[in-house]
Amino acid sequence: MTNSSTATPQNSAPSTIAFLGTGNMNGAILRGLLAAGHPVASVRATTRSAASATALAQDTGVEVRSTEQSARANDWAIADADVVVLGVKPVGIAQLCQEIAPALRPETVVVSVAAAITLAAMEAALPQGQPVVRSMPNTPLQVGAGVVGLARGTAADDAAVALATGVFEASGQVFEVPEQQIDVVAAVSGSGPAYAFYLAEAMADGGVALGLDPELARRLASATVAGAGKMLSEPGVDPAALRKAVTSPKGTTERAIDVFDAQGVRQAIAAGEKAATDRARQLSAELA
């Protein structure tokens, strides 16, 4: 696994980027790109409804068109694009690829942010030789702290991967992996924010059970998980070393960790990640 965000300079970001579909994830990627200084004039977007197009344009300054108002909105967006980011639901990715195929330039890099849609499925719906990259981003992209896994298709060379990386690196760290590992990336980092939120919920519930006011317990747990996350974001940090640093021998934290180990918390997390990976692969087979 390589960390592409450190290998690719930010100024390699493509000059023209088209976002087809601007839900939570694509919207976060778009906003992160603009926040990093990418020119508004070099970004285009499409939405399904006219109302959402107007709202996004007013919020970001980007030119946005809706497929509700124009059947050729997507063709307009991708006309001169270096990268096209597909942000519709997984079930609609192949159909969208077929729709835009005639209007794509041969060198345009097509990037999917949808889970479960394989590179082979996208390549089959696009012109032969079209560079395709499959991505697995997570929601902390919305706050500039995301993690993104990328897998390249058969026609995507290093330059194509660099272009795709340039879209995401403004909002987080980017790692290239083989496609057979992308579902595992999804299980660890794609679903991972939910695990952290689940932990904060459980910590707060435990505090309430021990007598804390619910709002105070929520704030204590949320701030603690957020603070620990900041510590983990420092370069070269080892989670195990951080844990050991606050686990004094025979102290209260050690007692809690001992209970977690006895209850099989670590094994439960690993089992959950495996279940998420298995489900992603099942969905890929169904959508194929």
From TrEMBL:
One example of a Gene Ontology biological process annotation: L-proline biosynthetic process
A GO MF label: pyrroline-5-carboxylate reductase activity
Matching Pfam families: F420_oxidored, P5CR_dimer
Annotated positions binding NADPH: 74
Compartment list: Cytoplasm
Residue numbers binding NADP(+): 20-25
InterPro entries: 6-PGluconate_DH-like_C_sf, NAD(P)-bd_dom_sf, P5C_Rdtase_cat_N, P5CR-like_CS, P5CR_dimer, Pyrroline-COOH_reductase
Boundaries of every Pyrroline-5-carboxylate reductase dimerisation domain copy: 179-283
Organism domain of life: Bacteria
GO cellular component terms listed in the entry, alphabetical order: cytoplasm
Keyword tags: Amino-acid biosynthesis, Cytoplasm, NADP, Oxidoreductase, Proline biosynthesis
PROSITE patterns: P5CR (PS00521)
Domain Pyrroline-5-carboxylate reductase catalytic N-terminal: 16-115
Broad class of the protein's primary localization: cytoplasm
Catalysed reaction equations from the record: L-proline + NAD(+) = (S)-1-pyrroline-5-carboxylate + NADH + 2 H(+); L-proline + NADP(+) = (S)-1-pyrroline-5-carboxylate + NADPH + 2 H(+)
Pathway(s) of this molecule: Amino-acid biosynthesis; L-proline biosynthesis; L-proline from L-glutamate 5-semialdehyde: step 1/1
Broad EC category: oxidoreductase
PANTHER family named among the record's database cross-references: PYRROLINE-5-CARBOXYLATE REDUCTASE (PTHR11645), PYRROLINE-5-CARBOXYLATE REDUCTASE 3 (PTHR11645:SF0)
NCBIfam families xrefs: proC (TIGR00112)
Family: Belongs to the pyrroline-5-carboxylate reductase family.
Its job: Catalyzes the reduction of 1-pyrroline-5-carboxylate (PCA) to L-proline.
Protein name: Pyrroline-5-carboxylate reductase
Lineage per the UniProt record: Bacteria, Bacillati, Actinomycetota, Actinomycetes, Micrococcales
Gene: proC
